[in-house]
Write a structure and sequence with these properties.
With 158 residues, the protein is α+β, with helices and mostly antiparallel strands. It has helices at residues 3-11, 18-25, 63-79, 93-105, 109-115, 142-157, and strands spanning 32-34, 53-58, 84-89, 121-125, 132-137. Helix 4 (93-105) packs antiparallel against helix 5 (109-115). The longest helix is centred in the middle third of the chain and has 17 residues, at 63-79. It starts with a helix and ends with a helix.
């Protein structure tokens, strides 16, 4: 059974034994990206205005976070000070509490509350609206990040 057939069967409500679906699921990519619709967002803190905001949910024990470090370092070298970089550490409960307080100060309190359990998450936000332009999980390809940053820049300039 190919993936298209699986999707058609799932959409039609047909039952597929889990043993049939598992080989197909193993072929899916690990990296996930989401395009988020802006719903009732509000502007971020004044200190974050004027540039795209890249937010990382990170934990020292997260192996995927470790794999993403070189990618984020490369993006940081390419983008430099043209992007506001915000990292929330959720490695321990104490670190998570500090990150929650910082998120609140930056106007990212609700964002942090919604995503604090999702390590290896990176989101590009428009600071003027607080809207998430693109959110990634475990993404190790640089191009989608750069594309989202460019999109955000064009929205900020409007």
């Amino acid at each position: 059974m190919n993936q298209r057939a699986l999707v058609v069967l799932l959409l039609s409500g047909a039952f597929i034994p889990l043993t049939t679906a598992l080989p197909l699921l193993s072929d899916l990519p690990l990296a996930v990206s989401f395009t988020q619709v802006a719903l009732a967002s509000s502007p971020l803190a004044p200190s974050l205005q004027g540039k795209p905001v890249l937010v990382v949910i990170y934990a020292s024990w997260c192996t995927t976070c470790q794999k993403m470090k070189p990618v984020l370092k490369t993006i940081r070298q390419q983008e430099g000070n043209d992007v506001h970089w915000v990292q929330f550490d959720v490695s321990t409960s104490a670190a998570s509490k500090r990150s929650a307080a910082r998120a609140k100060e930056l106007g990212l309190g609700q964002f942090f509350k919604s995503h604090r359990s999702q390590t290896s998450l990176v989101s590009i936000l428009n600071p003027a609206t607080g809207a998430s332009i693109r959110t990634f999980r475990a993404q190790t390809d640089i191009d989608p990040y750069v594309s989202a940053i460019r999109t955000t820049r064009s929205l900020i300039r409007r």
